[in-house]
Amino acid sequence: MTAPVSVGTEPVAIGRGGLHAPPAAYGAAALGNLYRALDDDEWREIVPAAWAGGVRYFDVAPHYGLGLAERRLGESLRAFPRDEYVVSTKVGRLLVPQEAAGRTDIENLFDVPADHRRVRDYSRDGVLRSIEQSLERLGLDHIDIVLVHDPDEHEREALEGAFPALSELRDQGVIRSFGAGMNQSAMLARFVRETDADVMMVAGRWTLLDRSAADDLLPLAAQRGVSVLAAAVFNSGILAMDDPAEGATFDYGPADHSVIERSQAIARVARAHGSTLPELAAQYPLRHPAVAAVVMGGASAAQVARNSRLIARPVAAAAWEELGERGLIGTEGHPVR
Fold first, then answer.
1. Can you give the residue range of the structural domain that contains 41?
2. DSSP state, 121?
3. Residue 125 belongs to a domain with what CATH number?
4. DSSP assigned state of 217
5. CA distances (Å), 297 to each of 57, 80, 158, in order?
6. DSSP conformation letters of 140-153
7. What pLDDT digit, counting tens, does each position of 120-178 carry?
8. Per the domain annotation, does 293 fall within a domain?
9. Which of 25, 131, 140, 309 could form a disulfide linkage to 293, CB 3.0–4.6 angstroms apart?
10. Domain tally, the chain
């Protein structure tokens, strides 16, 4: 019987700015009332539960609840020593006040009053204003990591405005690291080639079901010493289930039958080796040496506590071997940590 393979729960380096955190990170979109409003008792328990589970890296963005997630995260983190956690936020969606007129932001998936509008701004001035606003909402005197948020249709503006501004801020010691966060890997790979960014967050493209980041981002990041943060590792739900069934979601839509069958096959291998599908989903991205952390969400204390435990129990090496032999995970040739 082969020994379990541990991905570790000790702090690892993130970026080149001296930042370290354990590999389980909390993505704080739910603090912005993603899909539904959280009452005070609910949201106030989330960050303490994540902390108790060993989480020390917290990712947020102005986009999440029109600033609400940043305010709630900042309030929650005031209970903990500032030098013991890492915070990342994002730039590119500048929040501009407007009259809510009774409207909510639910069309953008957040159940909050529509008292601001998002303005895409990847310019130098936009970046500086966005960071200033985020610092105020978070109640912090510095932000560790700043990511350019979803610049898909604004690649040139990001390259000419946002990235040079963030590079200067890092050189000045205002921030420690910077990069971009996107749902695609090809543009992130170009950013690795064309900027001196040291962190990239890829959502949904380096998972048990979608390994497309292995074609471009991951090998280049490993070569350049860029830390990759793997987000959306459950592909919006299907990989968060012990036993996926019809009706499961994949990439924010209904999963087709072939995806469900593949997920079920992986789940059977997991069970045969004493693990669960969510454990494999959380640990698989960390098997690539370029990946520093997995960023998992959660809208309750129970969810974040459960997620933080998913990487604590090592998966048997035989499980990964069987998945490879059966073609259920790729053979991209990436070295295992």
1. 10-324
2. -
3. 3.20.20.100
4. H
5. 12, 20, 26
6. -S-EEEEEEE--TT
7. 999 999 999 999 999 999 999 999 999 999 999 999 999 999 999 999 999 999 999 99
8. yes
9. 25
10. 1
